[in-house]
Amino acid sequence: MSPEQAEIDRLHALDEAEAALTPDPDQWWRPPDHDGLKPAYWIDPEPGFQGMLSSDRILAYHYAVGRMIRPFREKQLKPASYELSLGPLYLMDGEMKTLDGETNKSVKIPPNSIVFVSMREQLLLPHWLVGRFDLAIEYIYQGLLLGTGPQVDPGFQGVLSCPLHNISSSPITLPFCEPFAKIDFVKTSFGFGEGVRIPDVRSDKDLRAASPLVGYLGQPLKVLQDTKTWRPPIFFAPRDVTEVKSSVSELDVEVKKNAKLVKRTRNFSIAGAIGVVALVATLFAGAVGAFVYTLTYTDGRIGDQKRLGGSVTSLTSDVKQLKADNAALCDRIVQLSPRRPIPKGC
Length: 346
Known about the structure:
The protein is an alpha+beta fold and 346 residues long. It has helices spanning 3-19, 55-64, 137-140, 204-209, 247-336; strands at residues 69-70, 82-92, 95-98, 106-109, 113-124, 129-135, 144-146, 151-152, 157-166, 172-175, 179-187, 230-231. Strands 1, 2, 3, 5, 6, 7, 8, 9, 11 and 12 form a ten-stranded mixed beta sheet that branches. A two-stranded antiparallel sheet has the order 4-10. 23% of the residues are buried. Residues 290-299 have low confidence and may be disordered.
């Protein structure tokens, strides 16, 4: 076995040992060990090749630089990308939470909400390679969106994190340590100009000490500042990031509240309208009843008055007739008894 293959086997064994462990939320994101990095991390071992890396070069460069992805699992290696799995830390509703693979085995992202998640893998990206990551297509079709699709700069070291937005109407579950995103790699033109001595570097410090770095046509080469080469996941976000919430979620809550209010108002309005109609009907019925009673009473009074008038007329006629009969009777008495005194009333 060649020394090169023996070294690859050693690095492969390290990857397998790390992959078998559950990442410790307090340690896994700490700055990676640089002792295993090789000169190829700073100096491109294949400057003649440019383009996106296919699986063979991802694997070859991984070992050439001293483990570019930690831990590296070949089952997550794809034709032109590498799958990134879910890490143990995530931020939801302003609260940092952890996954352990036992009691907490997944992140359940509610509908219309945002959650910040971390990756399981650490990256040690060479200074001549750039990375770009995005969600796995299966989660995109479920309604999950990556808040940003950022470029991972050459020289970055550490654990990636990103915001995820569930725009669907159903919760979406991400299992712990299972792939949910993927990263691809593209070679940059990073290299030293013709006639420039390539520095002997074994660390970022050595690389910066060789400044000014001269590249193509004598132009300066830029590298990441020392303060930006390593960043922990989620923690470097602004302080007020813990207050970040989905505006769609808040709108959804308001819509539901307003829908309930509208429903109550509609029910109240219908009941009120029915009550008003019933009241109007009652008042109308009362008014009609009063009118009918009044009309009946008035008709009765008018009838009584008419009947009384007829009686008076009849009595008046009877009185006249009685007076006439009385006068005739008196005349008859006088004729029969001329010497008698005239009776009273004649």
